[in-house]
Known about the structure:
Blueprint: E1 2-7, H1 10-25, E2 29-34, H2 45-50, E3 58-59, H3 67-85, E4 89-93, H4 97-108, E5 113-116, H5 128-139, E6 142-145, H6 148-156, E7 164-166, H7 170-185, E8 198-202, H8 206-209, H9 212-224, E9 229-233, H10 236-244, H11 248-252, E10 257-260, H12 265-273, E11 277-280, H13 283-291, E12 296-298, H14 306-311, E13 314-316, H15 321-333, H16 335-342, H17 353-366, E14 383-388, H18 395-402, E15 405-411, E16 414-416, E17 428-433
Parallel strand pairs: 1-2, 1-4, 2-3, 4-5, 5-6, 6-7, 8-9, 8-11, 9-10, 11-12, 12-13
Antiparallel strand pairs: 14-17, 15-16, 15-17
The structure holds uridine-diphosphate-N-acetylglucosamine and uridine-5'-diphosphate.
Amino acid sequence: MKIAIILGTRPEIIKMAPVIDEIRKRGMEFVLIHTGQHYDHEMSDQFFIDLELPAPHHNIGVGSGSHGAMTAEMLRGLEEVLLREEPDIVMVQGDTNAVLAGALAAVKLHIPVGHVEAGLRSFDRTMPEEINRMVADVCSKLYYVPTEESAINLLMEGVDPEMILITGNTVVDACLRNIEIASRKSDILSEFSEDDRIVALTLHRAENVDNPERLRSIIDAILELEEFRIVFPVHPRTRKNLERFGLYTMLQDAAHVTLMKPMGYLDFLLLLSNSFMVLTDSGGLQEEAITFNVPCLTLRYNTERPETVEAGGNILVGADREMITGTARRLLEDPDFRRRMMEAENPYGDGHASERIIEETLRLHREGKLGMEAPEEVMSIPSRRLIHVEEDITVSDLAEREDVSVRMVYSAGEILFPAPDLNLRGLDVLIESGSRRN
Ligand code: UD1
Ligand code: UDP
């Protein structure tokens, strides 16, 4: 089986690294394709070094541009490479433009797509990332979802539960594998004293940094929080906008703020895991913070990672200066509040997501379920029924006996994921018969 992996930005490199490791460990054939969306050394190459990844076999070299131009160029370049490489499956990760272009290019060539970190939804279609992940999920065949919550988002959109694999998030694999390496190799902590209350700050989301009022409001909060030692590795998009809106020098002049270039992964991981709290609008950081028991204040009004908020490790503070400073100070003044945030349970799994991703992919490939051939039989019209089950029977046994697919399971009004071994006694079940393809 030949796997093509498409990536283009910093978080994709980090989160696909454990999957690439797993593929290499098993000696499987693979091709690594970089779209070139991130191209600065510290936004791309540094992560290949830190994570000991092989150099990409192809780099489409799209660089920066408008969404339309970037996506068009990626589609053209990826199609060409995929036609040449003929992989059995294409894997994409997350919600960047590479995911949109990669999934679309592949499915149009009838190559099955596996979406790592599928099913996340912020329900905010003004976010470019929301459109990217939704389009990618429409194009995908296989969904590797981090949590049951994301699995249910996909069920609600009609995805076949058999193709939804709850694996955990590979970000945990990356954190657990690399934190020990980071403590050995990185000397980032030598720049701080024992008494510093380190705050790891990152900011790059378009809706924050392209909007001068929001950016100004966040920076005002940062400037006010003098009781912390705020470490701010600045994303290139953010740096440009801070300079454009005249805010960069204000940060430079603040003694409690340390501005840096984007940091390497090992340095950043060590810094983050030793932080008093995280201030961020990043997706990955919300997950890493809860993995390392560091309280996270998310500089957004919504999140596609609601599990972190429900678990108690993450608070949405938006771009509101008072919400940001008030919550940060409460963490300082109210130890019980901080302890509760630190004790939040990590919803993203046990650090073995990448093993599950590869194992399940191999299983479905063996079972012949990854095919994308055109139908050669006349379809039978799908029909759906809601039934109440009063016997001990599992999802897979019911599906086999009745020749149906179990689409949804309801328990006292709550939706459950129809895992194959779930006992359906006492539950309401939406079944579907017919020859629908996914
Ligand atoms: C992209 C993703 C975002 C992800 C983020 C991770 C999309 C739509 N956005 O946002 O989901 O969270 O990456 O960091 O795919 N730039 C450089 N050097 C680089 C890369 C970018 O200078 O190596 C500058 C350019 O001015 C560019 C701007 O940053 O125009 C934005 O880059 P872009 O790749 O369009 O989006 P990100 O904000 O990085
Ligand atoms: N990160 C890093 N150096 C930095 C900032 C972030 O290595 O200076 C890592 C961080 O550990 C996380 C990832 O980059 O794994 C998050 O990327 P980003 O915030 O750019 O994207 P998002 O997750 O929001 O898509």
